[in-house]
């Protein structure tokens, strides 16, 4: 985790330098503030990851001589046949278009989003792939 933390810390430094240069060149406060806040968020993540890396210790991902078998084999369950992520993505796109263009489209998008999220969450409770 040390490498990840150093990457975020480097990003914080990079965004800080870019924010200072941007403010010096343009004199614009809004863009400089956004860049400075981005650097601050990167610093927070980098600090947390570096702080956590002391407690976690060395992972197989951190060891250059580790084999693939050294990692934890259980990464979770991923559904290979599910069409619900596509439905959630399309409903999110309709919702975002509704935010831009029309209230009726926003209402329809939120309704579609709720239906697709319910289908996604309860996919394994009913139908062909339900647990017996």
From TrEMBL:
<dbReference type="GO" id="GO:0022900">
    <property type="term" value="P:electron transport chain"/>
</dbReference>
<keyword id="KW-1133">Transmembrane helix</keyword>
<keyword id="KW-0812">Transmembrane</keyword>
<feature type="transmembrane region" description="Helical">
    <location>
        <begin position="107"/>
        <end position="125"/>
    </location>
</feature>
<keyword id="KW-0472">Membrane</keyword>
<dbReference type="GO" id="GO:0005886">
    <property type="term" value="C:plasma membrane"/>
</dbReference>
<protein>
    <submittedName>
        <fullName>Unannotated protein</fullName>
    </submittedName>
</protein>
<dbReference type="GO" id="GO:0004129">
    <property type="term" value="F:cytochrome-c oxidase activity"/>
</dbReference>
<feature type="transmembrane region" description="Helical">
    <location>
        <begin position="29"/>
        <end position="51"/>
    </location>
</feature>
<dbReference type="InterPro" id="IPR021050">
    <property type="entry name" value="Cyt_c_oxidase_su4_actinobac"/>
</dbReference>
<keyword id="KW-1003">Cell membrane</keyword>
<dbReference type="Pfam" id="PF12270">
    <property type="entry name" value="Cyt_c_ox_IV"/>
</dbReference>
